[in-house]
Amino acid sequence: QVQLVESGGGMVQPGGSLRLSCAASGFDFSTTRMTWVRQAPGKVPEWVASISPGGSPTNYEVDVKGRFTISRDNAGTVYLEMKSLKPEDTAVYYCRVDLGRTYWGQGTQVTVSS
Prior knowledge:
Blueprint lengths: L2 E5 L2 E3 L5 E8 L8 E6 L6 E6 L6 E3 L7 E5 L4 E6 L8 E8 L3 E3 L3 E5 L2
Parallel strand pairs: 2-11
Antiparallel strand pairs: 1-3, 3-8, 4-5, 4-9, 5-6, 7-8, 9-10, 9-11
């Protein structure tokens, strides 16, 4: 079955960096567009970034463009490199895939605080 397992979250100070990973299995990763979504406390989920099969093109939400980088390897993992983190980036970050129905991972908490 489809599995998405996120890791790499944590607590960092403003201006810090984190690299999130999402290990995907149970579907043809190489032909599937992958997405990161985040949900801040008390807010609806927000799309962050997407990456097409093969690694291009990539798309970013305007507030993260230039600070976050989405990438993928050939072994079933998608990454989200986050730099210059801000307190407003605090959220649970989810990996998401749409295969006729939508699948989400369990999420990884990112907290940006001094």
